[in-house]
Specification:
The complex is a heterodimer of chains A (123) and B (237). With 123 residues, chain A is an alpha+beta fold. Chain A has helices spanning 4-7, 40-46, 52-61, 77-89, and strands spanning 2-3, 25-33, 90-98, 105-109, 112-113. Chain B contains ten helices and seven strands. Chain B has helices at residues 12-17, 23-34, 36-42, 56-65, 79-91, 105-108, 129-138, 153-162, 166-172, 198-209; strands spanning 46-50, 71-76, 97-100, 115-120, 182-193, 212-221, 224-232. Bound molecules: S-adenosylmethionine (SAM) and zinc ion. Chain B: Belongs to the eukaryotic/archaeal PrmC-related family.
Chain lengths: 123, 237
């Protein structure tokens, strides 16, 4: 499933594509919301492993504009709730993720991203 | 006893396209069950299974960790496998996040030092190199077992991604391009066959990457002698 938490951990890996290969940009997405149990500590502990700006932009691309552009120093419960929703509850079911550097498009279908590359594209 | 995942939703057609859990799978489940107490204590945040097939193993891990919130990333080159991984998770109320890809390639650069539990039941059967590489490029069920020379051709490529050699660290610290998966407390469970040369895998992982290892279980299944090896950064008892 492509949730924004997963999207934040995926980079283009086409041979030679090593700069500006993250984050991938969503295109023509179809989104589904699925409720997940809120766990503030998990979100808090996960944040250092994620890229804030990439998350905010990805959320925008899938229609969620609730996150502040700059990562606040203090995480209150309300913000953690918003992060939880963006990271864990938005599922991208169809569409693609496109590399801003080499323009490779990775399709998403039935909720699963296909990141396989052809032989000649592998580094 | 931790219940074995419910796989009743998988059809015969699914299991013609995707690895049907077998002795090797169950040995890995047994190893994880044996480690359950410690795994829970570690409170892992990011789990990553390479070659998740039916999704049976990650689902089982999700059941072991229960209410401990964790991200379960699963990769497989076979797109029928990632489809089954997703549905097996759902069937058992565990949210798995499958990605169709080879090994950990699109995740590697972003996951550096963050994987707390890494699992791999690889295609470990010795075949000729041609059979292994065509199975890899066809990304079909043959990729479940065809392992090439010593059954190690696919595993070998993953081992290189688990840790970076101290030599490479030395040269690369400047530009921070080294790619390694395990977090400081990370554990890596690998299924291996006797013919894969378990002592050699273990000594190379220690010498090249400084990873300690232990054999958690070994078991004979028909003609196969199977092992579960656990790698960690510091020796555990
Ligand atoms: C022995 S099966 C194990 C399946 C499942 N984890 C289990 O234990 O039942 C090996 C799995 O690895 C997958 N695989 C083979 N080569 C791979 C690669 N390069 N990257 C990711 N997965 C791969 C196969 O498609 C297959 O699903
Ligand atoms: Zn690219």
């Amino acid at each position: 499933m492509v949730r924004l938490i997963t999207h934040n951990l995926l980079a283009c890996h086409v041979k030679g594509c090593t700069t500006n290969n993250f984050p991938l940009v969503f295109q023509d997405v179809q989104v589904e919301l699925q409720e997940a149990e809120f766990n503030p500590d998990f979100i808090r502990n996960m944040l250092p492993r994620l890229e804030w700006t990439a998350l905010v932009n990805a959320a925008k691309q899938v229609g969620d504009t609730s996150l502040p552009l700059e990562q606040p120093d203090m995480m209150d419960d309300e913000l953690l709730q918003k992060l939880h929703h963006a990271l864990m509850e938005i599922h991208i079911i169809e569409g693609a993720m496109v590399c801003q550097n080499c323009r490779h498009a990775y399709p998403i279908s039935n909720g699963i991203p296909n990141m396989l590359l052809a032989e000649h594209e592998i580094g | 006893m931790i219940p074995t995942p419910d796989l009743s939703h998988l059809t015969r057609h699914d299991l013609e396209q995707v690895y049907d859990p077998a002795e090797d799978t169950f040995l890995l489940l047994d190893a994880l069950e044996q480690e359950a107490g410690e795994l829970r204590k570690e409170r892992p945040m990011i789990c990553l299974e390479v070659g998740s097939g039916s999704g049976c193993v990650s689902t089982f891990l999700g059941t072991i960790l229960g209410p401990i919130p964790s991200l379960y990333l699963c990769t497989d080159i076979n797109q029928h496998a990632t489809r089954c991984t997703l549905s097996t998770g759902k069937q058992n109320k565990i949210t798995l996040d499958p990605v169709t890809c080879s090994l950990t390639r699109p995740l590697l650069s972003r996951l550096h030092h963050t994987v707390d539990i890494l699992l791999f039941n690889p295609p470990y059967v010795p075949t000729d190199t041609y059979e292994a590489s065509s199975a890899q490029s066809n990304a079909d069920i043959a990729g479940s077992w065809a392992g090439g020379t010593d059954g190690m051709e696919v595993t070998e490529r993953l081992l290189q991604d688990v840790e970076v050699s101290s030599f490479t660290v030395f040269w690369d610290t400047v530009n921070d391009v080294y790619q390694h998966l395990l977090s400081p407390r990370g554990r890596f469970y690998l299924v291996a066959l006797k013919q894969n040369n378990v002592p050699s895998i273990r000594s190379r992982m220690l010498e090249d990457f400084g990873l300690s290892s232990q054999i958690i279980i070994e078991r004979r299944a028909g003609r196969e002698l199977l092992f579960i090896i656990r790698f960690t950064r510091t020796a555990l008892s």
